[in-house]
Amino acid sequence: MTKTRKWPPQLGLAIALAVLMAGLAAARPGFITLGNLVNLVRQISINGILAVGVTYVLLTGGVDLSLGSLVALTGVIAATFAHPGEYAVVVPVSAGIAAGALCGAINGVLVTRGRMAPFVVTLGMMTSARGLALLASGGRPVSNLSTAFTRIGSGDFAGIPAPTWILLAVAAASHVFLRNMRMGRHVYAVGGNESAARASGVHVNKVKMVCYTVCGAMAGLAGVVLASRITTGQPNAGIGYELDAIAAVVIGGTSLNGGTGGVSGTILGALLIGVINNGLDLLNVSSYYQQVIKGVIIVGAVWLDRSKKS
Amino acid sequence: MKRSSGPVAALALAGCLLQACSSSGSAKKGPVIGVSLLNVSNEFIVMINQAMDAKAKELGVQIIVNDAQRSADRQVEQVESFIAQKVDAIILNPCEVEASSPAVDKAIAAGIPIVNVNSETRSTPTAFVGSRDEEAARIAMEYIAKRLNGKGNVTMMQGFMGQAGQIKRDTGAREVLAKNPGLKLIAQQTAEWDRAKAMSLMENWIQSYGARINAVFAQNDEMAMGALIALEQARLKDKVIVVGVDAIADALAAVRDGRLDATVFQDARGQGAAAVETAVRIVRKQPYEKSVMIPFQLVTRDNVAQFH
C-alpha cells in the first residue's frame, strides 16, 4: 500500500515470469536452450490463439466456454477436407475457421438478441458442438491428412514454428484492432460500462457480435492448427482448453468483469502457463504435484500482479 | 426383429407371433439368450456383437440383442424384460460398475444365469468373460524389454490418473520393470489418453533427455501416436521404440507402415464368442469356467496383416 507510483501494466507478471524462468534455468540447464525455447513457443501457440480470441469476449464482460468443443468440431471439419489429393489446403483451413466463426456468431446472437447470460449460451454451445464433432466424424478420428495440411502444425519459417507465426499474427492484429480502431475502443467501452456506452451511441449488440464471432473464428483457427499438428481431426480433442485460455487472459490482467486488459497481457499469461507446463515436465515433477503447483502458480501470479498495481 | 422397419413388417411379425409362436418355438428347440450391449455405435462393441451372432449360429441358439446406449438405467430395464420373457440366459456388457449391478442381482434372483462380458460389475455374475488390462501393459513392456535386451531407459505415458485403465496398465508395466532391473524408468507423466497432450509431453522429454530415451510405453494408442509424431519431427524415431495399447485403426496403419513399433490388441471377437459359448454351457449344464480370460495379442509389423 506504500506504493503510490503507477506500475506499467503487466510488470508484475513479467517479473513473475522472469523469476520462474530463471529458477527453471538454474534447476535444469536444458531449459534455456534454443531447442527448448522453440519448443516452448510452439506449445503455447494453440492456447495462445484461443486466449487472444477469448480476450475479446472477456473484455466485453462475457465468457466463452465453448472453445474446447469448437476446437474439436472445427478440427474434424478441417480434417474432412484435408485428405491428400482432394482440395487445396486453403479449403480445409477456411472451412475450419468459417465453422468456428459461425458457431461464435450463434453465441453472439443468443447473447445479444436472445438476452441470455453468456455462461449459459456458451455452455449450450460447448455441449452441442461436442455432439456435432462426434456426429461429423462418426465418433472416430479423421486421419490420413495431406502433408500440405500437416505442415501448418509442423513446419517452421526462419527457425520459428509455423503455429507461433500464426499466434504472432493474430496477436499483433488484435492488439492494433483493440487499441487503435474505433470498434476496438468500443469493446472496452461496452465492458467498462454497458449503459454508458449505449448512451454515448455505441452499438453494444454489434460490438458483442463482433467479439463472439472473432472468438469463434480464432477457435476455428486453433482447431485447424491442432488437427494439423496431431495429424488427425479428433472429436474428443480440446476438452478443458477453454479454461487454460481463460486462465491465460486473466493472468494477463484482463478483468473477468470486462473493460480492462488486453492482448499483450494475454500473451504473457499464455507464456506463463506454457513455462509452467514445460518446466514441470522437464523437472519430471509427478503428475499429482504438477496440478497442485500449476494452481498455486496461476493464483500467485495474479496476486503478485494485482498487488504491484495497487 | 430389431432390423425390421416399418409398420408393415411389424404387423407381419405380430401375425407370425400370434399364429406360429408355439410351432416355431418347438421347431427351434435351441435356448434363447438375451444380450444387453453397452453401445453398438462403438466399434469395439460392434465386433463383440458380430462374434456373438456368428457363435450363436454355430451353436444353434437364438440371441436377442438390445443396445443400452451407454445408459445403465436402460440396461437394467432391458434385463428386466429378458427376465419377464423367461430367456434361458443373459449376457451383459455392463455400462457401469455400480449402476449396472442391479441387472446382475435381478437375473440371479430370478434364477437366470448371467454372463458379464468385457467389463465388470460390483455384483458377481454367474460367469465373467473378458481381458485383464494389466496383461496388456505387461505384453507391451515385455516387448520393450526384449527389443532392448533388458537394458535401457524407458519413459511411460500414463492415462487419466486414477481411472481403472490407468491403474491396471501402470501395475502391469511395473511388474515387468521390477523383473528387469536393467530397464530404468527415467520419466513418467500423464498425457490423459490425449494425442495432443502426448505430443507436447514427448517434445518436453526430448528436450530433457534427447536420445537417452530408448523406449516409450504409452498406455493407449492415442498417446503412442502423439509420441510417435513428436519423435518423427525431432528426427529421433529411428532411435526410440514406441509401443501403445488398443490396436486402434491409426495405430495399426502406423505399425503396417513401420512407424510404430507395436501395439496390443484386445480381442473383441474372442470375448464375444466366449461369452456365448459360456452362456450355452451353463444352460446345457455342461462344465464351464467362472472366469474366462481372453488373451491380448502383441501386434508388430510381422503379424499386423491379421488385424484390420
Number of helices in the DSSP assignment of chain A: 14
Structural class of the secondary elements of chain A? mainly alpha
The main sheet of chain B orders its strands as 2-1-3-4-5-11
Q: What oligomerization state is this entry in?
A: heterodimer
Low-confidence sequence ranges of chain B: 1-5, 10-28
Structural class of chain B: alpha/beta
Summarize the structure.
The complex is a heterodimer of chains A (310) and B (308). Chain A is mainly alpha-helical and 310 residues long. Chain A has helices at 11-27, 34-43, 45-59, 67-80, 90-112, 118-137, 147-154, 162-180, 182-192, 194-199, 204-229, 241-251, 263-282, 287-309, and strands spanning 156-157, 160-161.
Structural commentary:
The complex is a heterodimer of chains A (310) and B (308). Chain A has a domain at 46-261. Helices cover 72% and strands 1% of the residues of chain A. Chain A has helices spanning 11-27, 34-43, 45-59, 67-80, 90-112, 118-137, 147-154, 162-180, 182-192, 194-199, 204-229, 241-251, 263-282, 287-309; strands at residues 156-157, 160-161. Chain A has a two-stranded antiparallel ribbon. Chain A starts with 10 loop residues before the first helix and ends with a helix. The longest helix of chain A has 26 residues, at 204-229. Chain A has 310 residues and is mostly helical. With 308 residues, chain B is an alpha/beta fold. Chain B has two domains: 29-131 and 268-294, Response regulator (Rossmann fold); 133-265, 3-Layer(aba) Sandwich (Rossmann fold). Chain B is 47% helix and 18% strand. Chain B has helices spanning 7-28, 43-59, 72-84, 101-109, 133-147, 164-179, 195-209, 221-233, 249-256, 268-283, and strands at 32-37, 62-67, 89-92, 114-117, 127-130, 152-158, 183-190, 215-218, 241-243, 263-265, 291-293, 297-299. In chain B, helix 3 runs parallel beside helix 4 (101-109) and helix 7 (195-209) packs across helix 8. In chain B, 49% of the residues are buried. Mean pLDDT of chain B is 89; it is low at 1-5 and 10-28. The interface between A and B is medium-sized, with 32 and 29 residues.
